[in-house]
Amino acid sequence: MADAAPDLIDRPAESRVQTLRRATHDMHERLDARIMQAQPFASRASYIRFLEVQRRFHADVAPLYADARLQLVAPDLAARAKLALIEQDLRDLGAEPAPLTDPAVDPSDLPAALGWLYVAEGSSLGAAFLLKEALKLGLDPDFGARHLAAHPEGRGLHWRRFTQALDDAPLSADDDARAVAGAAAAFARVRALVDDLMPK
Ligand code: HEM
C-alpha cells in the first residue's frame, strides 16, 4: 500500500557509529562553520591558534588512547594518538607548548570515552581538507602539519577499521547512551576551546 505508515517499514537497525554521527551532526556542522569563520589558514599565527585548540583537545583524549581497557576495543588505539604530532607541529612553528592542567575526560567511564574517541578519530577525516589549506601556508606532513597527514593505509580504511571496532564493542543500551553523551561532550569541549582561543 503506497501510504503505509512509515514506522511499519522494515528498516535495518542503525549501527552505533551511525547513531553517533546522527546525534552529533548539527554540532559538527556548527563547529566546522565556526572554525572556518576564524580563518585558521589566513596566516601561520592564525594556524597556531587552531593548533592550540587541537593540542588541548588531544591532551584531553591522550589518556584514553593509552588506556588498556579501551585498547581491547581497538587494538591499534595507542598508535592512533595525535598529541605528540600536534606538539611537534607547534614546535616546528616556534611555539613551545605550555603545560596543561585541566583534563576534561573521565577515563573510568568507558562508554563515554568511546564517544570522545569517535570525535577525535573522526576529525582526521576532515583533516584531508585542512591539509590542503595548510600546504598553501608552506606547511606539510613533515613540517607544521604532521597531525593532518593521512595514515599510510589511507584515511578511509583507517577510519573504517576504527568504526568497525566501535560497532563491534559489546555495549548495553545504557552504555550506548553514555557513548552518545561522551561524543556530545567532546564536541562541546572543542567548541568551548575554539570560542576561547580562536577569535572570529
Ligand atoms: C573546519 C574544520 C572541519 C572541517 C572542514 C571538517 C570536515 C569534515 C568532513 C568533510 C568530514 C566527512 C569526511 C567523509 O565523510 O569522508 C568530517 C567528518 C568528521 N569530522 Fe570534521 N571537519 C572539521 C572539524 C572537525 C573537528 C574540529 C572535529 C572534532 C574534534 C570533527 C569531527 C568529525 C567527525 C567525528 C567526523 C566523522 C563523522 C562520521 O562520518 O561519523 N571535525 N569532517
From TrEMBL:
A GO biological-process term: heme oxidation
What's the protein here called? Heme oxygenase
Q: Name one GO molecular function term.
A: heme oxygenase (decyclizing) activity
> What is the name of the gene encoding this protein?
hemO_3
Q: Which InterPro entries match?
A: Haem_Oase-like, Haem_Oase-like_multi-hlx
